[in-house]
Design a protein that fits this description.
The chain is built from 5 helices and no strands. It has 87 residues and is mainly α.
Amino acid sequence: MLSQKSPAMKRATMRLKELSADEKARQLYEARLKEQRDAYAREQGAVKQNSLSIAKNLLSAGDTIDKIVTVTGLSHDEVKALQNADN
């Protein structure tokens, strides 16, 4: 409906249909999308590892679980599991 009202949207919709029909263009799009998702997953994994490392250091320094949860964004259960793993 929106594509019928706006010439720009109509052109974009037509272009999308063309690209969707082109197998090679679709494969390239899917490859780019996969790479973006993989990069995001790597980034999130690094953030998680950093948070775990900080939590371990704070536990060693004697900080409370509540403070560590606040600082790192980890869950209470995750910090508790780290604490139990160190004991």
